[in-house]
């Protein structure tokens, strides 16, 4: 193995003490982060202390600072808020308060702090670190600590994790709690839509976010709201007439309801607040519509954390402990954050300064700059919203005279409809005529193709499954008929939204180009499958919704097991041969083991898992959860594992099994899938428009190059177009999975958090990235 590799076994926490606290406003997922810090800390041999009630507990000391054990963080994963308490602390803002806090830490030998909170909490932590040696000098002089104690504890290391539902912190794509808050908002909006439709009402919703419009913007994208008001983009003068015009236009278009989303910090061009009541009065006065206001308030902070937040917080918690172990006296305080799909470390004060710059830019009415400073994730959301929000009149549309067909292929996946809606509307905005193909390639060769207009896709974002209909049929056998249909309808480009069959289908269509010139058109595929098994993309539309379905069910099962005690559940998940759902679902649900095809296992592994569970039953956590991917092994079936565990666990624990089945494909799409589907399909349509212009020669479109048949996937930090032909070498066609899969790196994490000794390659961690560089890079990312 090359020397550059770095393994967890070589990092030791022996003799170190870590304090973990949550501070400021609570956010769902904070508990998952605390659990990960405690377990990872104990795993590497460090002592970990809970600091209850945030900085207040640090100042007050006493029972507020307690050593944590492995069992003390059990059953925390699925609980919202923060179990160790959080408080806004005035004392810590004073020098005297910080002096008392320093004394309390030194008495317990705590020189490593993991702070989970917003920008205020993290700024406070950094100030504390800068003052540390001065505070110790004062304590030595007053005789409260010895010289020796001051030397032993001479350096304070700080690592931050951003826990805030507002997602207002620069330097990270997502803060812990944001995704869960979006879940709450979307649940409410979906519920309101049914009542609004019944009465033909207009609803004005106020969402949280302080001075940041992220929650309002993303929920507007995810539910197809008619209008959104956010602090970063104050509406232009005369917006009142524009908004009322759009609302009445939508009503005239047979739309029975209107949804307006207002961020709590929304302002106009003159920095004056725009309130929900102001909007309501405006709509009633100008249009006479029956209008209601709903202020979501603290509902958004509550409830159980989403699968995304649990995984994010668990990954960040482990990364925070690694950062503390690797810190040297000169290391600046850092924040562990998420960039695209990767955990990175960024200097804390750089993030804080940029976060403050955003506010300054907004105060000085430099709004475009404020949007850029918010980061690429925010900017891309805003651009997609602008692209989809304004329906142009026919006279304003560029007339491209191109026909673009959209179809779903493979099994249904939640979020497919959001992708279709986005593609259709962006296509129409770009001047194309859009066609919808029913029932995948089967409907294609049968001629089930019809034009689809702007209004036809209204309300599609929140619908699960596939409204166009989808089939697993591949095109190769019917390629003559498909080419004929392409000619009849004069289709100039194809957008295929689907799973592995969509990928195979695109390869087959490309191979048939030599025989059929009708197929020489730009084609692009957007991955949509719960299995997340598409080469060329780290994530697929639908996988997040499926993960949430698995996590919800596992939570209920764990609750049942806790009641009966000494019970182990074996749960079978979908995914074909791809172990993504079992692994990542296992991490989100706090499973003891997850069996997958990609990591072969034998009878000895099963035996050691049974022994591990037998040991666990001697502790206070008397329940077990084991996930198994449906195709993980031909012979070690779910029944076999269930019978083996039942026999081996006799007298110690009893067993139950659950096959989750198709519930993983159903349900309303999660906010992540709605948003991902919307953004990725919009980007795909823009690519199609560009390629149509590029390949238009002498009155026709002719595209026969490899790069005119692409898959658009998310790779680490960016959305990338890759020719499908080039992805062949990366594919295991027999088992329908990519040869290399990023999430396999998360498996050791799941094992560590379940108390297994394992090897964990941490070579990826450890580089401190600067925030400016981080923003300039990968501008095309989500």
Overview of the molecule:
The protein is of the alpha/beta class and 782 residues long. It is 40% helix and 17% strand. The chain has 24 helices and 27 strands. The strands form six sheets. Strands 12, 13, 14, 15, 16, 17, 24 and 25 form an eight-stranded mixed beta sheet that branches. A seven-stranded mixed beta sheet has the order 3-2-1-4-5-10-11, with helices on both faces. A four-stranded parallel beta sheet has the order 7-8-6-9, sandwiched between helices. Strand 26 and strand 27 form a beta hairpin. Helix 8 packs across helix 9, helix 12 packs across helix 13 and helix 13 crosses helix 22. The C terminus is likely disordered.
Total E-strand runs: 27
- The number of helices is 24
Please mark out the parts with pLDDT under 50 across 5 or more consecutive residues, or reply none: 773-782
Give the termini distance in whole angstroms.
Answer: 34 Å
Q: In angstroms, what is the radius of gyration?
A: 27 Å
Q: Note the overall shape.
A: globular
The residue-averaged pLDDT reads 91
- Assembly state (oligomeric): single chain
Structure class = alpha/beta
Q: Assign a percent range to the helix content.
A: 40-55%
Strand content: 15-25%
Main sheet: strands, sense, barrel: 8 strands, mixed
In short:
A hairpin with a 2-residue loop joins β24 and β25. The model is unreliable at about 775-780 (pLDDT under 50). This protein has about 775 residues and is an alpha/beta fold.
